[in-house]
């Protein structure tokens, strides 16, 4: 049986096309959930909307410091692999669940497939960078979204027949579910932005949100720039960000439409009609590019340079009011006919063709 390790929102979204395609083909597949994300808004709603099968095992690790979280996951995942006689393991991306899943499988003698292999920011202050590099090192099948990641792997001496360029399943998911979102989601009406010009803002990276002085300055710049362009800003707040805002009494301006974290369909619907997206999430950076909405990546670097090269996004991380207003202006004026670098929406089929061989 192919065990798919899931722990957080992006893994659910990006593994869903593979899991559903495996089910269609009659390939035995089972989800093992680490419990890294556990609240309904960050987890349950995605199972419902993506129509994912119930996990065969849930190891309920929850939030704790990274070394303890990863250690406990490895222990409990190894037990689950044994209990369910798993013959191969699929992990996606760069979260702590991915590193734990890859190591637990490798050390149990089970071959590992890594979806979204070869991404590199070269920024080792990010917890995700070490997770990606280590997961790639122990994987048998490395599924790269574009040639760029194959090149990154080659530079590290990973150049074997298990490396494949297949596109990114984020395209499979976004193209399908954005259509569904227009039938099922009334979020724009509920938030009363359906007749307004608005932008969408998300921030959850430790480097942006853990330090209150930085978070406050970034929010002030975004507030200033968006006011200048007459935009409301829809801001679904991740729990990590909410904690800093609440603990340090950081005020949010009136033209910010603040919500709890949103489900997939609601967020896709909002993204697709936005004038601009400001984000430090890699997945949203990709979705914006695929949906042809200009974005600003709120980071000094990115492991997804394709979005910058095609002109869909631009890096911005200094909290500077005038500069951000000017970058926002340039991005919103962009011709949106850029090429989608992440593939044709058939990545899940390609992955399963290769794994079935
Ligand atoms: C994790 C991933 C990140 C991914 C993101 C998607 C790592 C190192 N980071 O970051 O790559 O982009 O998921 O959201 O794996 N919390 C809740 N409810 C939950 C889960 C967490 O309230 O269901 C709170 C907890 O207070 C926790 C904090 O959010 O301490 C952060 O959660 P955590 O899983 O550590 O990392 P994320 O910031 O979500």
What can you see in these coordinates?
- With 357 residues, the chain is α/β, with parallel strands linked by helices.
- It has two domains: 2-168 and 343-356, Rossmann fold (3-Layer(aba) Sandwich), CATH 3.40.50; 176-332, Glycogen Phosphorylase B (Rossmann fold, 3-Layer(aba) Sandwich).
- Helices cover 48% and strands 15% of the residues.
- The chain contains 16 helices and 13 strands.
- The protein has helices at residues 9-25, 40-50, 66-83, 96-107, 127-137, 147-155, 169-184, 187-190, 206-209, 212-228, 239-247, 264-272, 282-290, 306-309, 321-332, 347-356; strands at residues 2-6, 29-33, 57-58, 88-92, 112-115, 141-144, 163-165, 198-202, 232-236, 256-259, 276-279, 295-297, 313-315.
- The strands form two sheets. A seven-stranded parallel sheet has the order 3-2-1-4-5-6-7, sandwiched between helices. The chain has a six-stranded parallel sheet with strand order 10-9-8-11-12-13, with helices on both faces.
- Helix 7 (169-184) packs across helix 12, helix 7 (169-184) packs across helix 13 (282-290) and helix 10 packs across helix 15.
- It is globular.
- The model has no long low-confidence stretch (mean pLDDT 97).
- Uridine-diphosphate-N-acetylglucosamine (UD1) binds at residues 8-10, 36-39, 42-43, 63, 94-96, 127-128, 204, 239-240.
């Amino acid at each position: 049986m192919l065990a798919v390790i899931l722990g957080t929102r992006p893994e659910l979204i990006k593994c869903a096309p593979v899991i559903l395609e495996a089910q269609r083909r009659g390939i035995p597949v089972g989800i093992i959930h680490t419990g890294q994300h556990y609240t309904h808004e960050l987890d349950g709603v995605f199972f419902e909307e993506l129509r994912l099968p119930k996990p065969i095992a849930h190891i309920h690790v929850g939030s704790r410091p990274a070394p303890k979280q990863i250690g406990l996951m490895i222990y409990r995942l190894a037990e689950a692999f044994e209990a369910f006689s798993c013959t191969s393991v699929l992990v996606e991306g760069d979260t702590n669940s991915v590193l734990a899943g890859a190591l637990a499988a490798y050390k149990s003698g089970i071959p590992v497939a890594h979806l979204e292999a070869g991404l590199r920011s070269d920024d080792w202050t990010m917890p995700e960078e070490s997770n990606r590099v280590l997961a790639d090192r122990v994987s048998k099948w490395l599924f790269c979204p574009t040639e760029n990641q194959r090149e990154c792997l080659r530079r590290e001496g990973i150049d074997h027949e298990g490396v494949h360029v297949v596109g990114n399943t984020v395209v499979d998911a976004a193209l399908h579910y954005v259509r569904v979102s227009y039938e099922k989601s009334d979020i724009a009406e509920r938030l009363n932005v359906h007749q307004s010009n608005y932008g969408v803002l998300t921030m959850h990276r430790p480097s942006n949100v853990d330090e209150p002085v930085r978070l406050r300055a970034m929010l002030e710049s975004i507030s200033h720039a968006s006011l200048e362009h007459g935009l409301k800003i829809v801001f679904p707040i991740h729990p990590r960000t909410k904690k800093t805002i609440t603990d340090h009494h950081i005020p949010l301006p009136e033209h910010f439409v603040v919500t709890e974290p949103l489900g997939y369909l609601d967020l896709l619907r909002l993204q697709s009609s936005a004038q601009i997206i400001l984000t430090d999430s890699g997945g949203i950076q990709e979705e914006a590019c695929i949906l042809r909405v200009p974005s600003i990546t709120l980071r000094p670097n990115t492991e997804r340079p394709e979005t910058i090269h095609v002109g869909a996004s631009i890096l911005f991380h200094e909290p500077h009011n005038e500069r951000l207003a000017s970058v926002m202006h340039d991005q919103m004026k962009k011709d949106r006919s850029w090429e989608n670098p992440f593939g044709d929406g058939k990545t899940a089929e390609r992955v399963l063709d290769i794994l079935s061989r």
